[in-house]
Amino acid sequence: MLKNLFQNIKDSIYNPAFYQRLGTEISFRASINYFFRLVGVLAFVGAVIMAMGVALFYQKDITSTVDSVFASYPADLIVTVEDGQVRINQASPYFFPIDTVGLPDTVSIDLAEESIENLIVIDTEHPFSTDLFQNYKTAILVTADSVVVQNKKEIRIMEIGDSISQVIDQASVKSFAKTVNVFIMLLPIFLLIALFIGFVFVSIFYLFYLLIPAFIIFIAAMVTKAKWHFSKAYQIALHAMTVPLILWFLTMVFGVNIKVKFLFTAILLLVVVVNLYYVKPASDASPLPPAA
User: How many domains, the chain?
Assistant: First the structure.
């Protein structure tokens, strides 16, 4: 099966005789099957590579960070949330300085241009204000009825719902940390599944995108008086999409951001021109004109 797929990939990149057989010896259904098999292989390989990258380079840091944060929770602090209101058994405000959290050396916090001195500040005595938040120099501020988070220059305020009732102490934090660590261990597997699904959905989008180059191919065929159905033009686009699809796969895996507009469409049409330049359509009409 893979050998046949690789041969189809090779033919779809360059094989004028192969393109001549499209719509006659090679059915439209066979081309659709090829497209989805190609997408499936690329999606699986890409998801495996990216999941392995997370497992090898990020999972250890994530685990160390979670352990450090949860281990720094004070033994004498109890936070009670009842009917959407927060109260603590210590004097307010209560500070969690970043230097006491013990984050790994590989983990840095860069949340704003101003220095952040505290990871969390709990202040149940004063209502939220921007000045109060900035004076605390914290990433997270917990007030009596809300949680305020800073991300770069953006401040998000999330109200604590009336239905939330929870007691947070060192024992519950340690228990939660164990649950989080189990999730982190399984993160590469979850990521593998999510990335595979993501690759497949994006590729399905390309089936609709191919209507545009297929229309261009169909118009070019009409100009050259080739008696093609639109389905053949679309079938040609399906195979010519091989090069752009592999290129898109490589940019996703290696994190390369290509900002050239219509690059994939141009590459697809170039593949079509190269493969149809010397090819006489099945109707014995003239081939598509060469690229200018």
Answer: 2
